[in-house]
Amino acid sequence: QLQASGGGLVQAGGSLRLSCAASGFSFDTYAVAWFRQAPGKERVFVTAIRSNGFRMYYVDSVKGRFTVSRDNAKNTAYLQMDNLKPEDTAIYYCAARYPGNVPTSTRLSDYTYWGQGTQVTVSS
């Protein structure tokens, strides 16, 4: 199971840090990804990190602003979001995929575990 938290309301240019706490599986063997779903739109890939934490992937729209990380000792992944923009407003979901040491996938169907989502709202 995954539990996402840390969302909220922030002004444009602000920051938020999302957390994704895992339980019930071997977290350190799974890659973790963050997806987001804006109102009326499909859920889309944002970023991912491999199981060992040494390879990260980002969509172009968040490069340089978002940072994904993980602490396998705490079974937790993080998404640091800086310089937020109104277009970042969405529900953010974390997801886990096995095996965790292969090139990332942006497909929702490749991920086994999903968090419940946390709302991020960026005001202009």
The total count of strands amounts to 11
Our estimate of the beta-strand percent is over 45%
| Main beta-sheet annotation | 7 strands, mixed
Low-confidence stretches: none
Secondary structure tally, helices: 0
Radius of gyration: 13 Å
Helix percent band: under 10%
Which series of helices and strands comes N to C?
EEEEEEEEEEE
Please give the alpha-carbon distance between the first and last residues: 34 Å
What global shape is seen?
globular
Structural class: mainly beta
Mean pLDDT: 97
Report on this model:
The chain has 124 residues and is an all-beta fold. Helix content is 0%, strand content 48%. The chain is built from no helices and eleven strands. Strands 2, 4, 5, 6, 9, 10 and 11 form a seven-stranded mixed beta sheet that branches. Strand 7 (66-71) and strand 8 form a beta hairpin.
In short:
This protein is an all-beta fold.
Give a quick set of tags describing it.
124 residues; 7-stranded mixed β-sheet; mainly beta; 11 strands; 4-stranded antiparallel β-sheet
Topology:
Layout: E1 2-5, E2 8-11, E3 16-22, E4 31-37, E5 43-49, E6 56-58, E7 66-71, E8 76-81, E9 90-97, E10 113-114, E11 118-123
Parallel strand pairs: 2-11
Antiparallel strand pairs: 1-3, 3-8, 4-5, 4-9, 5-6, 7-8, 9-10, 9-11
